[in-house]
Amino acid sequence: MRSKITVVGAGFVGSTLVQRIAERDYADVVMFDIVPNMPQGKALDMLQAGPVLGYDTLITGTNDYADTADSDIVVITSGFPRKPGMSRDDLLKKNQEIVSQVTEQIVKYSPNSILIIVTNPLDAMAQVALKVSGFPRERVIGMAGVLDTARFRTFIAQELGASVRDVQAYVLGGHGDTMVPLSRLCTVAGVPIAELLPAERIEQIVQRTRDGGAEIVKLLGNGSAYFAPSASVLQMLDSIVLDKKMIMPCAIYLQGEYGLNNLFVGVPAKLGAKGLEQVIEVELQENEQVQLKKSADAVKELIDVLGIA
Ligand SMILES: NC(=O)C1=CN([C@@H]2O[C@H](COP(=O)(O)OP(=O)(O)OC[C@H]3O[C@@H](n4cnc5c(N)ncnc54)[C@H](O)[C@@H]3O)[C@@H](O)[C@H]2O)C=CC1
Ligand SMILES: O=C([O-])CC(=O)C(=O)O
C-alpha cells in the first residue's frame, strides 16, 4: 500500500511540496489549509497535471482534519512567513499558536505519524510540536539543515564553477543567524575547500549562507523562500518513505549528543521508515563546538520565552 502524507498549510512551501511529492508517485497526499476552497482548488489543478507528467498520485485538498486520518507522515508548514527586516524569531508567538493547534488535531487523527516541522522559528516550533504531541523524538523532526546546506553547496559550486553534486557540506546548529556551516568538512570531489579557496573567501560564503533566507526575503519583498525549502523536505521524505537511511542535517531533540540536552538543534541524522534512526556524532573541533553551543543557546532563549523546556 502507498504511504499517506499530509501537508498542513497550502501556501507557498506547502503547495510546492505537494506538487513535488505528486511527481515522485510514491505516496498519496492530503493538503490541508484553513482557507476555504483554496487547498481543494490547488489539489484539483495538481491532479490535472498528472496525465501530462505521468503520475497517479491521489491528491486531496481539504479544510477537514478527518481527511488527514491515518497519515504516515505529516509535514507542518502552516504559519506566518517573515517580511523584510524581520528575523525568524519575530514569528515566535503567532506561529506557536498555529503549530500547537495543528499538532493537537494531527495527533487526534494520526497518532502514529512522523511529523516534519517546517514553520519558523524552526527549532522552537519543532519543540512545540514535540511537547504538544507527546510523540517520541524519533517521530518529530525539523527541516532546516538540508536547506542551509544546499545554500552553502550552491555558493561553493558557483564560486568554483563546479557541479553542485560534487560539493559536500554540513551546516549544523539552529536555523537562525547563529547557524554553523562547517567549512572544515566541506569538500569538492573529495578535496577540502581550504585547499581550493582562500580563508577570507570561505568566510564570506559562510556569512552569505547564514543570511541565505534573509537575502531571499529581501528580494521577494512579501514572503520567503519556497522552492529550495520544499525540495529539502522532499529529500527527508524520500529517505523516510523509501527507508533509504540517508544521513542529512535535521533539527533533532538532542538528549546528550554534542553535549546538548532537551533542545532541538541541527545535527547529522539518519532518516528511515521509523523517522529518526540515529544521530550521527561528528567529532567537532573546539571552536566549532563553541559555535554550536552559541547557536543552541539562541534556541534555548526562545524555548524559555515559550516556557516549554
Ligand atoms: N524551516 C525552513 O527552513 C523554512 C521555513 N519556512 C516557514 O514555513 C512557513 C510557511 O511559509 P510559506 O508557505 O511561505 O507561507 P504562506 O503564507 O505562503 O503559507 C502559510 C499557509 O499556512 C496557512 N495557515 C495559517 N494558519 C493555519 C492553521 N491554523 N491551520 C492550517 N493552515 C494554516 C495559511 O492559510 C497559508 O496558506 C513560515 O513560517 C516560514 O517562515 C519557510 C521556508 C523555509
Ligand atoms: O528566511 C525565512 O524566513 C524562511 C527560511 O527559513 C529560509 O528560507 O531559510
From TrEMBL:
- Sorted alphabetically, which CDD domains does this protein's record hold? LDH-like_MDH
Alphabetical UniProt keywords:
NAD, Oxidoreductase, Tricarboxylic acid cycle
Sequence intervals crossing the membrane: none
Q: What is its EC number?
A: 1.1.1.37
Lactate/malate dehydrogenase N-terminal domain ranges (all copies): 4-142
- Reading the lineage from the top rank, the first entry is Bacteria
Q: Which residues does substrate bind?
A: 82, 88, 120, 151
Location of the active site = 175
Q: Biological process (GO) annotations? A: lactate metabolic process; tricarboxylic acid cycle
A Pfam family (short name) is Ldh_1_C
Look at the named UniProt entry and state the broad enzyme category this protein falls under: oxidoreductase
According to the entry, every stretch annotated as the Lactate/malate dehydrogenase C-terminal domain falls at 147-304
Binding locations of NAD(+): 9-14, 33, 95, 118-120
Which family does the similarity line name? Belongs to the LDH/MDH superfamily. LDH family.
Q: What does this protein do?
A: Catalyzes the reversible oxidation of malate to oxaloacetate.
Question: By what name is this protein known?
Answer: Malate dehydrogenase
- This chain is encoded by the gene named mdh
